[in-house]
Automatic annotation (TrEMBL):
This is Huntingtin-interacting protein 1-related protein. It comes from Oncorhynchus mykiss. Homodimer. Interacts with actin; homodimerization promotes actin binding. Interacts with CLTB. Interacts with HIP1. Interacts (via ENTH and I/LWEQ domains) with BCL2L10. PROSITE patterns: ENTH, I_LWEQ. Residues 1-101 form the ENTH domain.
Amino acid sequence: VKEKHARNILFKGAHTFWAAVNRLPLSSNAVLCWKFCHVFHKLLRDGHPNVIKDSMRNKADLSDMSRMWGHLSEGYGKLCSIYLKLLITKMEFHVKNPRFPGNLQMSNRQLDEAGENDVNNFFQLTVEMFDYLECELNLFLGVFSSLDMSRSVSVTAAGQCRLAPLIQVILDSSHLYDYTVKLLFKLHSCLPADTLQGHRDRFQEQFKKLKSLFYRSSNLQYFKRLIQIPQLPENPPNFLRASALSEHISPVVVIPAESSSPETEHMVDLVTEDLVDTDIPVQPVAHLNMFDDLFGTSAATDPFNFNNQNGMRKDDKDRLIEQLTREIQALREELESFRLESGRLCQALRGRVNELEAELAEQSHLRMQALGESEFLRAELDDLRRVKEDTEKEQRSLTEIERKAVANEQRYVKLKEKYTELVQSHADLLRKNAEVTRQMTVARAAQDEVDSVRREMQEKVKAAQEAAERRVRARHTLREQALESQLVAARWSTLQGAVEEAERIVQDSLAQLDDPAHISCTSSADYLASRCQASLDCMDRLHSARDSYLADNTGVSELVRAVTHLAHLVGDTIVQGSATSHMVPVEQADGECELSLYSATLRAALEGILATAEKLRPRGLELQQGELGDLVEQEMAATSAAVESAAARIEDMLNKSRAVDTGVKMEVNERILASCTDLMQAIKELVLSSKDLQRDIVDSGRGAASMKEFYVKNSRWTEGLISASKAVGWGATVMVDAADLVVQGKGKYEELMVCSHEIAASTAQLVAASKVKADKDNANLGRLKLASKGVTQATAGVVASTKSGKSQIEEKDTMDFSSMTLTQIKRQEMDSQVSVLELETKLQKERERLGELRKKHYELAGVAEERTAADVEVVCDALGLL
């Protein structure tokens, strides 16, 4: 498309252009439609501003034509559809934004004025530019996809026909890219980055496409001599950094000035300005290009190569040569006549040139006069321009004032509506307040009812607890009575054993009478009298001990010692009497047969006692004599080690709690662990005192026997010590585990309190086992009692600190009823009642389970007692035989 042809159809509008276009077969000739789009694009860019307005009335026809050509998937049809969509988008953009000229060349100030300094306008303008640039890129891609880039298509006529409109696309795209970058920086300075995420994503996509297309276009030979295509930066701008705007360089497209050759100027002087006449000589060239597009360049480069025509005869070639020779001769004659005509025309034109030079001199004189007038008019025009600018400023100010007035009016209307809403909302809130007040009254009444029910339930629970405590006390009383009866039975069995031992000693003395070794023994009567007197004195002490035992049932030890001492004295008296009788003659007695009969009966009784004694041997752990003593020492050492380990673990837990916990939780944990540490120290002191007391008991009671023999001899007492030591060590370990869980927030405070009570019971058992054989005036016994009191106080301290910590922790979980409605309060009340019933049921079941456990414990404890009672009965039966 030649610029002079386009200039001839521009007369301050596009009426002439559309009058000519409407006669063209654009809907049937795709190539003609493509060239029309190229010309129309140039008109929209470089034509008069009225071109866009005059062309909008043909928008519907262009849309129909675009849809029609869009049905073709190959060739110029698809390209025409894309190009028509681009032109429609361009017209719509300029109609919506009249401040933008057709060539899109604007300064930064004009760009700001186009958006009227309103962020909403800039936001919408950016979206429209994205749509505009998207259409430009679609045309770019469509043209490149229709070309075979493996060949030098840019130097062929068909390739140049398709590439030529891309110059206008490059010009538009460079401006649209520049304005889009500036608008996005402006939007990022006013709006949050998240709001513009879609803009950034769309820009990134278009940036990659545009950069690739610019690079591909710059490598084509066709564009290198017509236009200088800018290269976009390697990376897109960073809109999140405001300083990146200073790094942005606006892409500039440079079109070199075209130099006209002398031949072209000569042809311009010769031809007229009729477009149809100038296009006539070009038609053969167009047909030749079409031929090249279809069949390649081989035929065009060698049109007279007849050697390849294998089927043509030589006579035909001669005739063809002669015909062509004649045509050449005719053309030469025509050329000669054309030269003569040209010479004549040159002479005429030279005369015309002289005339024009004279006219030019006159026009120069007139021009000088016009220059003076133009200076005057220019000054006047400047004044008018300043007046116009002032008027425009005032007009803009007036428009701004009117806009602000309209905005204030709208704001007033909105405020009025808001005030009406607030009044309505206030009335609604008053009604809601009355309703809430009524609901609160009902809620308070319900709360009072709940409190009364809670107090009633608490009273019932308290009464149940008191009843349970009474039952426990009754059971304890029964237990004490049972223990008292067991103690009485044990005392009686001890006394029975002492009597049996005394009887055995007497029987041994009687048995020595028949011993042949004893027959030769003699003694004096004085010594026999002294032994009898000692026996009588011991008999008196026996009577006094018996009287004191019958008085309070506590002096059994004194009675046992008296019986044993008396047995030894009586046996010695019998032996000494027999030895004294050897000094006199033997006289036969009449009761010898009765004595023999009694001796036989006595032997049978002794055999029965021996069999019974075999049955009474312990059936528990079959320990050797040395193992029971070692076991006592091992258990006491293990108990001390368990207490030491528990104290170390508590210290470690205290350090960890101080490093992790804070506030109330740290204070509660420190108090609980400190009380547990005190309890461990008290238990440690108790164990040491118990070991010292046991050592005194063993030293005072073993006589000439060893310590292990003493433990074996007093096996029941030893087993009590072992059991108590195990219970103390186990209780310390369990309490430390419970304290660890409580500090970690995984355990229960009640479990810790139960463990402390269990430790108190175990230490009480250890104290009782240690006191059984101790002298009441022993100093270590006093220390043991003080240590026992210390354990009791430390246990109370653990329970108190645990309860206090539990109450402090539970204070944070106090429920807030202020924000609850009547329905929610009623629902919570029902849930609380359900929880109370569930807890009561669970409490009743746990009490029944506790009762069964205690019952089973008493039964198991009673088995050993019954076994002991049965053994005592067997011994009594044996004594009855004697």
